[in-house]
Design goal:
alpha/beta, 5 helices
């Protein structure tokens, strides 16, 4: 009961986080909330409890708040297995995740959903089973087939992959026909 925190729970956030003691936490935002969340004070609280977060869902986070979170991470989040980031950057340019963020900071990540940030080219987790990426910006994507291949190559355990691009990149020419990716466990593939 005390292990499920939500950004829109007001004063109960502090009560639940204290009563959960050392238990692993599931933290999520609310998509129905009118204002963008989490507030900077919640980001600070996230960082205080980072060593025991198991699931983190940020459905409406601004890039400045997300950057505060990234900058506050010092050590890997060993217990984090589920991460969902839907960033509302507000500009035409999608923000980048920090270099090596997934591979170095999230060693046990199994489920990843990203939207509103650049595709994590050449950075992944070998334990990742579920990966959903959406680029819904109005500008054409800068994502390349090679970038996707390089990333998928680092996801041998992947069984679900979803790639949604509102405006795909212009047609690209394959650079190497022998550039293969082996995804032995892949059961679901969605491309749009």
């Amino acid at each position: 009961l005390w292990c499920r925190l939500s950004f829109d729970m007001g004063q109960l956030w502090d009560v639940f986080s204290q009563r959960s003691k050392a238990a692993l936490l599931s933290i999520e935002g609310s998509e129905e909330t009118a204002e963008l969340i989490p507030a900077p004070s919640r980001i600070t609280s996230l960082l205080e409890h980072r060593h025991r977060i198991r699931e983190l869902r940020l459905p409406r986070v601004t890039w400045p708040d997300l950057k505060i979170f990234f900058d506050g991470l010092i050590n890997p989040l060993h217990y984090l297995s589920v991460l969902s980031i839907i960033c509302t950057s507000g500009s035409g340019q999608l923000p980048d995740l920090p270099d090596g963020f997934i591979s170095h900071m999230l060693p046990n990540l199994e489920e990843l959903t990203l939207a509103g940030v650049e595709f994590p080219t050449n950075s992944s987790s070998s334990r990742l089973r579920y990966f959903r990426y959406s680029d819904l910006s109005e500008r054409p994507s800068t994502l390349t087939v090679q970038g996707i291949m390089d990333t998928l190559r680092q996801m041998p355990s992947l069984d679900q992959f979803s790639l949604v691009l509102k405006k795909p990149a212009p047609k690209q020419r394959a650079t190497d026909r022998h550039n293969k990716v082996s995804l032995l466990y892949l059961k679901e593939l969605y491309l749009s």
